[in-house]
Design a protein that fits this description.
Thrombin, subunit H, 1 helix, 265 residues
């Protein structure tokens, strides 16, 4: 009986051992299968990680390229901005030059108009001067003819009268008085005004070289006992002389017939 119990116990132990061994093997199989699955998952994750890293590297490369492109684009934008600014400045300068040209053109037009007006005035003045010159020539001829009358009466040639070049006409209304050829032996030589010409600023007096008159002699002009001014001899002939006024106002004061007295030297 004791042997049967031992055998049963042994069988039970064997069964328990087999059960435990079977359970352990099952668990091993389960763990092995789990490990295989985990390894497969790990391998898959490793592959995915490598792919992700590859994509990350590719993305970084793309990002670097994009950054380079962005820098290039920014540089181009700066260049275009500078060009636009320069073009704006050039446009403003061109507009300023255009405005300046317009202003210059307007001034030139005004200047041209002013010059045309001045030219027209000068032409009018020239025509008036030519007319006045013709009148002066005619009046001069009249005056020279009048002088010749004096010369013929006194049997002496006075020649051309010396006149002030600033004169503009001749007083053709001057009368021709009788020439006085009396020789004055006094120290203060006296005579009288024969011809007065206000425009040519000269007078003709009735004393000449025969009386001792020389060029640059100065005569005082009297109206009554009052001295009205002086005249200076410019041209001398035998019995008469031509003299200019020492002051321009005298031409409106001196009269034909006024007495003249030579100043002492």
């Amino acid at each position: 009986m004791g042997s049967k119990v031992k055998a049963i116990v042994l069988i039970i132990l064997i069964v328990i051992s087999l059960a435990i061994a079977g359970g352990g093997f099952y668990l091993y199989q389960q763990e092995h299968a789990r490990n295989i699955n985990l390894q497969a998952s790990l391998d898959d994750l490793t592959i995915k990680q490598k792919l992700t890293q590859a994509k990350l590297l590719e993305a970084q490369k793309s990002l670097s390229i994009i950054e380079v492109k962005l820098k290039d684009a920014a540089s181009q934008i700066d260049t275009l901005t500078n060009q636009l600014q320069q073009e704006k400045i050039s446009k403003e300068e061109a507009l300023s030059r255009i405005e300046q040209i317009r202003a210059d053109l307007d001034r030139q037009k005004e200047s041209r108009s002013d010059l045309e007006n001045k030219l027209s005035k000068v032409q009018d003045d020239l025509r008036a001067a030519q007319g006045k010159l013709s009148k002066m020539e005619a009046e001069k001829e009249t005056l020279e003819a009048k002088i010749k009358v004096f010369e013929s009466k006194s049997n002496v040639e006075l020649g051309k009268i010396v006149v002030n070049p600033e004169a503009s006409s001749v007083d053709s209304s001057a009368a021709a008085p009788v020439v006085n050829t009396q020789v004055l032996a006094t120290k203060n030589l006296e005579g009288k005004v024969l011809v007065l010409n206000k425009e040519y600023n000269f007078v003709v007096i009735d004393v000449g070289s025969k009386n001792g008159v020389v060029v640059n002699d100065v005569f005082s002009v009297y109206q009554g006992n009052k001295i009205v001014g002086d005249i200076k001899i410019e041209k001398v002939q035998e019995t008469m002389s031509a003299a200019g006024f020492t002051a321009d106002k005298l031409k409106n004061i001196v009269k034909e017939g006024d007495r003249v007295v030579r100043k002492n030297k």
